[in-house]
Amino acid sequence: MSNNILADDILNIHSVQSFATLEGEGIRFAVFLQGCPYRCVYCHNPDTWYGEGQGTNLSIDDIVTKMSHYKGFYKNGGGLTVTGGEPLLQASKIIELFRRVREDLGLTNTIDTSCAVMPDCIEDLLALTDLVIIDLKFHNNADYNKYAKGTLDKTIAMLDVTLKMGVNVWIRTVVVPDINDTNADMDKYVEIVNRYPHISKYELLAYHTMGEFKYAELNIKYPLAGVEQLSLSKLKSLQKYVYERINLK
User: Fold this and answer.
1) What is the residue range of 164's domain?
2) For residue 5, is it within any domain?
3) Among 15, 115, 218, 227, which has the highest number of CB atoms less than 10 A from its own CB?
4) Rounded distance, CA 248 to CA 68, Å?
C-alpha cells in the first residue's frame, strides 16, 4: 500500500476533543479531520488545509473505543461530531464510523461541513446522520470565489440533498467587518435560509483573530491583516435583525 493512501478504516485527523459543547447538541466527541479545498480569508485553522502527510491517523476502532470511555457524558442527545477541515473529503470512511457510533454506542452523529465537496456516497452518509451543521459563508458566488475560493452552488446542492433526506440542519455564518456585516447582507442570507423548511437554527459567528498566529508559524500571509474583530454589540444587532425575519422549523 502506498504511503500516501490510508486504509479504509483509518481517518486522517487534525485533533479530537472529548468534551465539545459547541459542535452540535449536548456534549460531543468532536473529531477534526485534516484537509480542506477552501481557502477562507477568515479561516482560523490553516493547519487543517492539507491532507494526508499532515496531522495524525486514527482507526475507526480507536475513535469508537475512545468514545466508549466517556459514553455516559454523551447521553441525552450527545454523541459524535465530525468536522474539519472538510470532513466530506473522507466521507466513505465516516459512513462506517457513523454506523459504529449509532449501532455500538447508541449515540447521535453530526457532520459540520463547508460543503466544499459533494461525495457520491452522500445519501448513504446522511442516512446515518442526525444533524448537519452547514457553514453558509457568503450569499453569492462572486464573494464565495473572492473570499473562499469556493462556490455557493455547492452549499445549495447540500441543502437540497439534506432536505430530500429529511436531515435536521443548522446554519452558521461568520460575519466579517466590511465584507458581510450589513443588514442588506443579512437579508440575502435570510432569503436563502427561508427556502428550506428543515433548517432549525441559524447562528451568526463573529470574525476573530485568534488564529492569526498560525499563519505566521506556517509562513502564510494572513489575508485579513488589520481587520478588527466583529464587536459583540454588532453581532447581537445583526442576530436580532435575522431572528425577526427568519422562518425556522
Assistant:
1) 10-243
2) no
3) 115
4) 34
Per the domain annotation, does 212 fall within a domain? Answer: yes
Instruction: Calculate the dihedral angle through the C-alpha atoms of 68, 135, 123, 4, rounding to the nearest 10 degrees.
Output: -70
Contact 196, 163 (CB under 8 A): yes
pLDDT band at residue 5, thresholds of 50, 70 and 90?
low
Per the structure, the count of domains in the chain is 1
Q: Is 48 exposed, middle or buried (0-12, 13-18, 19+ CB in 10 A)?
A: buried
**DSSP letter string, 108-140:** EEEEEE------TTHHHHHTT-SEEEEE---SS
Asked whether residue 249 is assigned to any structural domain, the reply reads: no
Entry pTM: 0.94
**What CATH number does residue 112 fall under?**
3.20.20.70
The one-letter amino acid code at 9 reads: D
